[in-house]
Amino acid sequence: MEIQHEVSGGGNLRLHVREWGAPSGIPVVFIHGWSSSHLAWRYQYESFLADEFRLVAMDLRGHGMSDAPLEADHYTDAQLWADDIAAIMEALHLDRPVLVGWSYGGFIIGDYVRAYGSSGISGVNYVGAGVKLTESIMRTLYGPGLLSHVEAATQPDLPTNIEAIRQFIRALVASPMTEVDFEYALAYNIVVPPEVRGAMLMREIDSDDILRHLQVPVLVSQGRLDQHALPAMAEHILGVCPTAEASWYEAAAHMPFLEDPERFNTELAEFARAIRG
Questions:
Q1: What is the value of pTM for the model shown?
Q2: Considering the domain 3-276 in this protein, what is its CATH number?
Q3: Which SS3 state, helix, strand or coil, does residue 213 take?
Q4: pLDDT tens digit string along 16-62?
């Protein structure tokens, strides 16, 4: 059964949230990436995970069916991102959920932990996730799948925008998506205003201090062929966070949860069960 929620997030911005699965199951909150949607997690909430777990997926502010004001200050304030997660946890009465952060979702988990601590969560699954966003490391930790398309994807000209997003999506995976998956991804990416995409990348982020002191278990799911958040990003997380363990996907790129959903879902289930006993 699917349940839809409207939650008042940071600064009272309206967030669209959906949940599936067992109401009494371990809660798992899926946080998607830059220019994406809760629909990115389709192979999770339509899987066996919904038989056991309470699955919650949001549309980030500026994305999908959530409110999308165009002013940059709605996206450059770390506290607003943190408040979004806290508001969803409170509104849905989520008891120590596992946070699954893909790509930009890694930054948002850092925002939440910095503002609220980690006592309210059970664990973190970083999935091709970012934890640093500074000029000095852009070409060290990020690859051409992102960097080659950012400028065009943040332009207001629609043809320029569409072509950039088409190429951006194709680079997310190591092998071509199915036609249906590509159509879904193109649709939910293109509804994100380019102003929102640009504002999200204006931030300076360094979550190393959070990672060093994180007390909850951390699973790092990383594709070896990722050209968005490079494998070096995962290695960085593993080197800084004492509770982190890796799951490497040798034949996957930036979307292991779509490229190898059976393995991803099995590992997520095992991780959630282990940390909640």
A1: 0.98
A2: 3.40.50.1820
A3: coil
A4: 999 999 999 999 999 999 999 999 999 999 999 999 999 999 999 99
